[in-house]
TrEMBL record:
Native source organism of the sequence: Clostridium acetobutylicum (strain ATCC 824 / DSM 792 / JCM 1419 / IAM 19013 / LMG 5710 / NBRC 13948 / NRRL B-527 / VKM B-1787 / 2291 / W)
Name of the protein in question: Protein-tyrosine-phosphatase, YWLE B.subtilis ortholog
Record Pfam families: LMWPc
Cross-referenced Gene3D superfamilies: 3.40.50.2300
UniProt keyword annotations, A-Z: Hydrolase, Protein phosphatase
GO molecular function: protein tyrosine phosphatase activity
Entries under SMART domains matching the protein: LMWPc
Length: 150
């Protein structure tokens, strides 16, 4: 199973979610990727995203390059999870044939609220964003485990 996390630029939230999910999830055959709806191809991960991921996971994502979301990427993935409900609505309307696999991360996990974009803000805001994503990923992984056991 391939899960695609999507945010605006693929330099903060979605790349953090990708690194976090791949570290947290130990379910065989499930892997996460990420992309940005308005990514500047090749942009580096934001410094504060890299700092927070290193603090929490011991992983270095500082040299990771942003990837632009494409229809092909969405076609190749089984589940597409956006950081905001607005972005999931936009993608569903633009990619109707894949609309059944596009959700916001909050919608899919049943948690209220979007994941706030920390871009350009303090490292403390990035730490809060990390916690917000982590809360939802724990629920997501539990849900995936339950679905596998059915």
């Amino acid at each position: 199973m391939k899960i695609l996390f999507v945010c605006t630029g693929n330099t903060c939230r979605s790349c953090m979610a990708e690194a976090m999910f791949n570290s947290m999830c130990n379910i065989d055959g499930i892997e996460a990727f990420s992309a940005g709806a308005s990514a500047i191809h090749g942009s580096k991960t934001s410094l504060n995203s890299a700092v927070v991921v290193r603090e929490n996971l011991g992983k270095d994502i500082s040299n990771r390059k942003a990837i632009q979301l494409t229809t092909f990427l969405v076609d190749e993935c089984d589940l597409v999870l956006t950081m905001t409900s607005l972005l999931s609505d936009v993608l569903r309307s633009q990619m109707e044939k894949n609309s059944n696999k596009i959700y916001s991360l909050s919608e899919y996990t049943g948690v209220e609220g979007d994941i706030t974009d920390p871009y350009g803000r303090s490292v403390e805001i990035y730490r809060q964003t990390y916690k917000d994503i982590e809360k939802r990923l724990k629920i997501l992984i539990k849900k995936l485990n339950e679905d596998r056991s059915i």
